[in-house]
Amino acid sequence: MRLLIILAFLSIVFMSDALAQTTRCTTDSFGNTTCRSSDGTTLRGSTDSFGNEIWRDNNGNTIRGRTDSFGNKTYRDNQGNTLRGHTDSFGNETWRDNQGNTIRGRTDSFGNRTYRDSSGNTTRCRTDSFGNTTCR
Question: Which has the closest alpha carbon to 103: 68, 70, 57, 135?
Answer without folding.
Answer: 135
